[in-house]
Design goal:
The structure is a homodimer. Chain A is of the alpha+beta class. Chain A is built from four helices and ten strands. In chain A, strands 1, 2, 4, 5, 6 and 7 form a six-stranded mixed beta sheet that branches. A two-stranded parallel ribbon of chain A has the order 3-8. In chain A, a hairpin with a 2-residue loop joins strand 1 and strand 2. The longest helix of chain A has 18 residues. The N and C termini of chain A lie far apart (about 45 Å). The interface between A and B is large, with 54 and 53 residues. The first copy, chain A, binds a DNA duplex (30 and 30 nucleotides) through helix 4.
Chain lengths: ~230, ~230
DNA sequence: TCCGGTTACAGTCAGCATGACCACAACCCG
DNA sequence: CGGGTTGTGGTCATGCTGACTGTAACCGGA
């Protein structure tokens, strides 16, 4: 944004990488795809595409999810995470990558193919977890920490569940993302006393397989920031 | 980060824009420069440069400050803010800009020239304030809000003052950035009880022109996050 | 039909952090 | 010396939180 007399030369390529998180079976999971490059066989990467000349960054993020994982979730939460511009982050040359964080209740089409898969976040970085390509082992922790952090001071947890939801379901989101157990009674008191977090809906939800009292249904409230915040234990 | 078979073509230009904030005379101020373009006469812009092929993003941020405002402050806090990629944000063509937030106690060389100047943040957006070029009227509010927000949960306020400092100086930073008055006694209790925020230094600071009891000196602590947070009133 | 198990919901209580004050200390200036 | 100013230490009431207890409402099996 300056040097207007500079010639219009190509300085470096721009790409978008998307870290899509979801909660399945009470576990936080991350979407990864297999790179096409033969040299990267056996590794996994975040779905990402080059930015086209006539395309906004958000559009590239949506296109990455659609083309590489078949996910078209227009209601999914999508926000920019950070831009990674290390000189050597891509062996093919200088590529600046704008990373995105995406949250969704259930990826539209279950992407459990051999090209796109959901991985337990708890297993990332361990021997059983996938090996990440490029510098994605730096992007992924940033994305997870952003999600964990934003659960504290924003109503983002509601982006992981479908409406209507119960407070038990919402609590299981917090427990899966944070990896801790929360007291049900205190969680309820906190959520319902935070203005605009959730709104009561009609009817009751049937109990789960183990029985239990039916729970009230709720919908997302209008608040985007939580006051006061829901702090991690 | 994908489509490895795609040719190495120029998709779009990449630039860095820096929003440098400082506190002078108890007022939060922002550094702006005059664009070279004749069509933008009378407007002001964030200092920014194109990213070179062999240059990291952080390096471009430092170079922008040095070349356009003569500021070489290696100890200044510098962090990435967000990347702006709107198709029409630059009339000269598609330019993706990685915005940075910089905080410094005193800009190395006082940049009060006709090309670079500090503006009161309170006046931005008003009739007396400068007219901003490009989409910088979108970047600047994001930068200010980031700074205000990070004062809450990080020890970033210490980046605005030089060591050693008094708690009165640190409090004036909070008051200038947030635009509110804080109770001196409660502020002190909060700061000294937050582990790692500040550490006591040697000696006392002389009182200001109006007199007053000498204040203890402090240095930055080792903590980067504040637990619990210092919330805005 | 009763009974244990499970989940949802409601309430109590102590501890901690906070905001609103008050009091004193230590300097400057006139 | 005495008022003004700033720094520092304290009290007190309030509100949020974690830990905990108790009741409601459902399931499944004996």
């Amino acid at each position: 944004m300056s040097a207007p007399t500079a010639p219009r030369v190509a300085s470096c390529a721009v790409a978008v990488d998307v870290a899509l998180l979801t909660v399945r079976n009470d576990r936080l999971q991350l979407l990864l795809v297999q790179p096409d490059a033969a040299a990267l066989r056996g590794t996994w990467a975040l779905p990402g595409r080059r930015v086209r000349d006539d395309e906004g960054l958000d559009d590239t993020a949506h296109r990455s999810l659609a083309e590489l994982a078949g996910i078209t979730a227009p209601e999914a939460h999508l926000e920019q995470l950070r831009t990674y511009g290390e000189l050597t982050r891509d062996p093919r040359g200088r590529v600046v990558s704008v990373a995105y964080l995406a949250l969704t209740p259930t990826p539209g089409d279950p992407p459990d193919t051999d090209r796109a898969q959901l991985f337990d976040v708890a297993r990332l970085g361990t021997a059983e977890g996938p090996t990440l390509a490029y510098d994605h082992d730096r992007i992924v922790p940033d994305a997870i920490e952003r999600a964990r952090s934003k659960l504290e001071y924003s109503a983002l947890a509601t982006a992981f569940v479908e409406e209507p939801f119960t407070l038990g379901e919402l609590r299981s989101i917090y427990e899966a993302v944070w990896g801790v157990a929360l007291d049900p009674a205190n969680f309820r008191r906190k959520v319902v006393s935070t203005p605009g977090f959730v709104e009561e809906a009609e009817g009751l939800a049937p109990p789960g397989p183990g029985g239990g009292r039916p729970a009230k249904r709720y919908r997302r409230g209008h608040a985007r920031r939580l006051h006061p915040a829901m702090l991690r234990p």
